[in-house]
């Protein structure tokens, strides 16, 4: 048999265990991994000599917004012109694929885009595979919804929207913290009956909205953004007022993006000092209910510290506030580590305009705060694949899986700065660079 591509002399990472198998040959045909062997007697149309370098699966970003890339909420188009669909796909992919992100899940965009982008999961070797949740579902409110949100105004309309998305071929649904009852339960029950995966951004400044504990009881399994965790602990109006007063005494009003983000971090310190039993119980419940939780670390981190791609920019934070926020971030990361160690699969979710740069930054952040390289690769590959229901197709280098592969010039196992090193990207069995 002649294979399409052979990656020779590779050090293959087994992401489930962290084992590195040396002198392996990855044999690929029709975009799939056919065989992984140390035998030398094979024929292939093309060969790449990895020269002993580390070879890992492609990254999976489980939370992106194309509106960020196409102009944010103010400037993103309501429609994608028919003659520009390919250009938009190329523009979006440029933010992800060169950095090793071979699969990403869109968590909200204008519904008018749906018919044009639903096929962007087709395995084209030139682009990242983009899956979509359609519009992020919210209940009816007086204010206008954001461009990526979609209002369902009754239990029946929520059910019908999920069924409509299922008929269109969607396999994922996004619920936002502005989705209330009875719409929330209707979405969960309908999606579950159709074997669709539901992801929820739960937790808000308003304690009247649903908490993580309440949504666990209703069957939600996948949660967005570790920073939201404390807002399901600070639940009563009196306690919220107490915390709000506490935050304003240190930071002033949360009237800028950086102060809103620092408020999330200060909430971690608040519960760490005042409600440790409650957060420990919540983490226990999350583990018992087989949930997953996403990261979204980069946007917060760059408000108070520079990194490889993101210099520290001027903002409204004082030197004292920055130092306090650094300490608060460390508290948040300690809880994230505890969640991971308790068996809750953590997955990467950049939620950022600069998706690929942010993902690599998040890997470095995880390393800086005590996650092992083995854990980090599992978080950024297999955990995400399993959460989005594609664990049998992507997320690890195994026979029968899609050949989405990264060959590293320098191994992150040697130095965490090497996450930013040069990489050779293989997408669906095709070398891109």
From TrEMBL:
One of its GO terms (molecular function) is hydrolase activity, acting on carbon-nitrogen (but not peptide) bonds. Gene3D superfamilies: Metal-dependent hydrolases (3.20.20.140), Urease, subunit C, domain 1 (2.30.40.10). Residues 54-430 form the Amidohydrolase-related domain. SUPFAM superfamilies: Composite domain of metallo-dependent hydrolases (SSF51338), Metallo-dependent hydrolases (SSF51556). Pfam families: Amidohydro_1 (PF01979). PANTHER family: ALPHA-D-RIBOSE 1-METHYLPHOSPHONATE 5-TRIPHOSPHATE DIPHOSPHATASE. This is Amidohydrolase-related domain-containing protein.
């Amino acid at each position: 048999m002649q294979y399409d591509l052979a990656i020779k002399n590779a050090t293959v990472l087994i992401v489930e265990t962290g084992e590195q198998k040396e002198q392996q040959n990855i044999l690929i045909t029709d975009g799939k991994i056919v065989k992984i062997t140390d035998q030398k007697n094979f024929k292939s149309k093309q060969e790449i000599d990895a020269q002993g370098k580390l070879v890992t699966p492609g990254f999976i970003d489980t939370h992106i917004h194309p509106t960020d890339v196409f102009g944010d909420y103010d400037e993103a188009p309501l429609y994608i012109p028919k003659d520009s669909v390919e250009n938009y796909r190329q523009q979006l992919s440029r933010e992800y694929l060169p950095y090793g992100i071979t699969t990403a899940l869109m968590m909200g965009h204008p519904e008018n885009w749906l018919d044009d982008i639903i096929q962007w999961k087709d395995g084209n070797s030139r682009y990242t595979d983009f899956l979509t949740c359609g519009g992020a579902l919210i209940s009816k409110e007086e204010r206008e919804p954001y461009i990526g949100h979609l209002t369902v105004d009754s239990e029946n309309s929520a059910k019908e929207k999920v069924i409509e998305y299922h008929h269109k071929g969607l396999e994922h649904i996004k619920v936002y913290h502005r989705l209330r009852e009875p719409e929330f339960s209707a979405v969960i029950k309908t999606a579950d009956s159709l074997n669709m995966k539901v992801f929820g951004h739960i937790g808000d400044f308003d304690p009247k909205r649903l908490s993580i504990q309440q949504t666990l009881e209703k069957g939600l399994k996948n949660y967005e953004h570790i920073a939201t965790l404390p807002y399901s602990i600070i639940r009563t109006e009196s306690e919220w007022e107490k915390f709000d007063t506490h935050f304003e005494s240190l930071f002033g009003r949360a009237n800028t993006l950086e102060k809103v983000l620092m408020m999330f971090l200060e909430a971690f310190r608040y519960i760490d000092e005042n409600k440790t039993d409650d957060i420990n119980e919540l983490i226990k419940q999350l583990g018992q209910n087989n949930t997953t939780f996403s990261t979204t670390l980069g946007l917060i981190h760059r408000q108070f510290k520079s990194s490889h791609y993101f210099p520290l920019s001027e903002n409204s934070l004082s030197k004292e506030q920055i130092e306090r926020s650094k300490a608060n971030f460390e508290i948040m990361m300690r809880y994230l580590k505890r969640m991971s160690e308790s068996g809750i699969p953590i997955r990467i979710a950049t939620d950022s305009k600069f998706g690929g740069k942010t993902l690599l930054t998040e890997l470095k952040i995880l390393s800086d705060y005590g996650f092992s390289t083995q854990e980090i690769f599992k978080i950024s590959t297999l955990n995400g694949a399993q959460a989005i229901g594609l664990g049998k197709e992507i997320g690890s280098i195994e026979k029968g899986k899609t050949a989405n592969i990264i060959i590293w010039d320098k191994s992150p196992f040697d130095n965490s700065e090497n996450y930013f090193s040069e990489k050779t990207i293989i997408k669906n069995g095709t070398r891109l660079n």
